[in-house]
Amino acid sequence: MQANREPKYGAVVLVDTHTHAVSADTDRFPQRPTAFANGAWWQGDDCSFERLRDEVAASSVDRVILVQAAGAYGDDNSYLDDSLQTSESGFSGVGIIDPFSRPGTSPNQRVRELAEQHRIGGLRLFYIPQPDTSWLGEAPGDELIDTCAELDLAVSVCCQPPAFDELASQLARRPDVPFALDHCGFADFTGDSPYLAAEPLWNLSDYPNLVVKLTPTLVRLNDANPSALVGELVANFGADRIIWGSDWPQHREVDEHGQQLTYAQQVDLIQSWITDLDPQQKQAIAGDNAQRLWPQLFTNLGAP
């Protein structure tokens, strides 16, 4: 998006793998709000795709993945698709399919229809809160993941530690499929390094097809030292298995005066967490891993 700019933080390409958008037009895009702990974060502010697009244009970010806003829309991906249809190059999308939300319809067929939409190149298996009837590690999860593999769609998983065993079963069943764990699975990073309470996450590092996503949401929930957290993630997973996301505008950091950071400032803050790494590690986390793991997400995007 930012042609011929000077690299920031040693990164030639910056790829934000986790943003959201919610329209103010509830007639065209009715909301299906779900009660989550962070509430209706989109209310009282402009969380539209147009705002995100403008904020990104003023930043150092080259490419962006727009993730379906589950809290506002559930698995109705209409606004996600509309946003991507009207955007310039540089954006791609990750949708959500709930295998039980529409009885009588085939979840796999819905995945196929989703994949046909412009610039939607990935599927998010949204597993929060963990359902009473497990499906991530069961046949419905198998079918969704197998369909994604057939269609060359990226697979993201949003779950918490109680579901790590189900995730591990899929990582072992499909070692050929790359998985991304959103927000590092909300692992427990309270206390100091080496974060012994995060052992369930560290155990997942045994599966080479898993990458973990570093976000400010994860840091803030644990009141963690970002640089120390990055150091432990690198020590356990390696820099080539870490990606980052701003979680904009669902999560916005504030400055020393309590003012919300702009998108560009939030991106700069996140990139500052990896400045202690060597240049190759920084570039891997900043952008290379996203492109290497899921090249289909960027097939239709021009060079940065």
Order of strands, widest sheet: 1-2-3-4-5-6-7-8
Secondary structure class reads: alpha/beta
Mean pLDDT: 89
Q: Can you count the helices?
A: 11
Q: How would you sum up the major sheet?
A: 8 strands, parallel
Count of individual domains:
1
The dominant shape is: globular
Radius of gyration, in Å, reads 18 Å
Oligomer: single chain
Give the topology string: H per helix, E per strand: EHEHHEHEHEHEHEHHEHH
N-end to C-end Cα span: 6 Å
The gist of it:
Helices cover 35% and strands 13% of the residues.
Task: Write up what this structure looks like.
The protein is an alpha/beta fold and 304 residues long. It has a single domain, classed as TIM Barrel (Alpha-Beta Barrel). It has 11 helices and 8 strands. It has helices at residues 49-57, 70-73, 78-86, 107-116, 139-151, 164-173, 199-204, 216-222, 226-237, 263-272, 279-293; strands at 15-19, 63-67, 91-96, 120-126, 154-158, 179-181, 210-214, 242-244. The protein has an 8-stranded parallel beta sheet with strand order 1-2-3-4-5-6-7-8. β3 (91-96), α4 (107-116) and β4 (120-126) form a beta-alpha-beta unit. α4 (107-116) packs parallel to α5 (139-151). The longest helix is centred in the last third of the chain and has 15 residues, at 279-293. The chain is globular and about 50 Å long.
